[in-house]
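Input/output pair, single chain:
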Amino acid sequence: MLRHSEDETLLDRIESAADALRSHLRSGLDGAGILLAPLEARALLYLQAHPGCSQADFVHAAGRDKGQVARLVKLLGERGLLVALPDRDDRRIGRLWLTDAGQALGTQVRAARLEGGRELLAGLDARERARLATLLGKIGAATPPGSASDDMPGAAD
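Output:
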């Protein structure tokens, strides 16, 4: 019988925590009546924090391929949640802006995310939260380029 090494056990715990985070986010969104896929919710949060970013910036932050992000941008645009406008200096570059509806929904997503996060982190005191943030920051710093980054909310997707 193969025994788990300490590293495997730690990785299992990280995956379990990521699963719990996704579950809390999903139940928070569902509880608030927000019908968005996790990546759609993350996109709204990212675009709130980075208004007017380029689609290429978003591709890098999301750690997704250009085609997937293009489909997501099209979908959110069709839903009236964002607009892509040409850059004023280089019209080949599309800048992404949330509409008023996108801003409002993003605010709801943020509130649902925080509520779910509070439940998830309720058992940690302030010192433990600070230590966890430090350790997760170290893990994030080791993330290869082109992967989901610290700039992308809910990167555990």
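The CA atoms of residues 15 and 156 lie 9 Å apart. The longest helix spans residues 6-31.
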